[in-house]
């Protein structure tokens, strides 16, 4: 829900409630006032009649109109308390039932007592009331509508810098090194928002570059000590005075060094791929790379490799990344194929499919391309090979899929676009 | 044969120097760029082992100097794995080979020997082990002057062993030599074992000496005849 919608909803509901309650109160107040005025009119009529009688000691001629008339009724009563009431009665002139206000009082003329009743139709009052209420309602509706339109325009304009900020953040590229540079605003809150975002972007930028420099330095500086460890272990291994236990331990040192080196390289590669340090606007000859890599593996005993490689398949992919992609997939297939198993490699203009006989069951398709996913703990791999495959695909606009069928692991790379 | 080792990490420099001395080379070592440039101006080396990240500047500068002075010293550059650009630039400036850190000393030995052979200063393109001789130019092997048919991997294996004679070669060193850095993990020890077994069988069948020993848990070793 948009801010304005939410604001309008509350605002309009509250306004309508206030206006409805106000209208009801207004109606009753107005009715009360009008009724009092009616009573006043009736009372002054009584005074007029009473005045005439006391002057002439006879009843006056009554001029009855459609809205006001007087009726007389001789009465034996000698005293009567003046009464005012409203009755519903039929008005023959209007041909309908209407409310009549009646004032009845005792008048004595020519030594006879009369009950004089002055009637006045309330229709006029009602009409007035209706008119006033109608006008009021109309005004309320107009006020609401105008309010809504103004708010909408105003809020839209007020929020414009806010949306500009959102756009700027959405399009911001960390790797571009440029500051976020949101402009200063006249509105304090928006200004604060922009300033905070600018500061945040600056902090993230510097953290990001520090991290990048760190990885770059680490990539170079860590290799030398690793070389030292490896060289020393190799020298130690040459000594004939070693016991079997010592040889085993030297071997363990070598294995750990290899693994550390490979882990380090893989993580760096992942970081570089994700930092978009490889350009993907060149094509690489996947057919050639695949053939070359497979030739390396041709004489592996116990595993048969069948190939079906189309010529000139060259998707948009950095050649170095293409080599790593193919290498990792083949490496994976060869490592996990049991003796006597088969590997099948097929490359077409649409996809690269590498499948191998499975030693066990299916892998977890959701996690197989994740980092450090290993089916058996303690296996030799770094657990990053397929994560690299996925990331290479991601930056090259391909997709990597895994499926399991007939005891076979199937890894497919689907190319998009012209290859 | 004279080598110059240019590496700023003292421990690694020391390891390489000791190892290559043990291989019968005459080694000099320096740890910064300026010293290296001075050395190359004064002497000729058969092969220079050059680290690219040096105090005093990039090792590529030394390549520039060599080129400027029309020197033909062989150069093997040491790089970190990911500096692809350095590698390409190094080749452009006349480096003969490169090896990525961390490397196996046996592999370094192999590369140095190959560079020296290729440069042909000593005319030693044939490597001999008893009755087996390896022609590194024609990439062929003969036993008792009879040609021996080897697969590509077996040939590489034999040459690797012969260059690193009398040294224990670990399985990971062998795997990395045969399949490269990225692929060696895929190889089970059985695969290396099978290749070596086949190689030994072929040599034996041709009447050659059985010079490759398998050492329990350590790896393999080729002994002098």
Description:
The complex is a heterodimer of chains A (419) and B (225). Chain A has 419 residues and is of the alpha+beta class. Chain A contains eight helices and nine strands. In chain A, strand 5 (304-309), helix 7 (319-336) and strand 6 (342-347) form a beta-alpha-beta unit. Chain B has 225 residues and is of the alpha/beta class. In chain B, helix 2 runs parallel beside helix 3 and helix 6 (152-163) packs across helix 8. The longest helix of chain B has 17 residues, at 189-205. At the A-B interface, helix 4, helix 5 and helix 7 of A face helix 1, helix 7 and helix 8 of B.
Keywords:
heterodimer; A: 419 residues; alpha+beta; five-stranded mixed beta sheet; B: 225 residues; alpha/beta; Rossmann fold; 2 domains; five-stranded parallel beta sheet; 8 helices
What is the topology?
The complex is a heterodimer of chains A (419) and B (225).
Chain A: H1 3-56, E1 68-74, E2 83-91, E3 96-109, E4 112-121, H2 123-170, H3 188-221, H4 223-238, H5 244-274, H6 286-297, E5 304-309, H7 319-336, E6 342-347, E7 351-357, H8 385-396, E8 399-405, E9 408-414
Parallel strand pairs in A: 5-6
Antiparallel strand pairs in A: 1-4, 2-3, 3-4, 6-7, 7-9, 8-9
Chain B: E1 2-6, H1 10-22, E2 26-30, H2 33-42, E3 47-51, E4 53-54, E5 57-58, H3 60-68, E6 74-80, H4 84-92, E7 97-101, H5 105-119, E8 126-129, E9 132-135, E10 140-143, E11 146-148, H6 152-163, E12 168-169, H7 171-179, H8 189-205, E13 212-215, E14 219-222
Helix pairs in contact in B: 2-3, 6-8
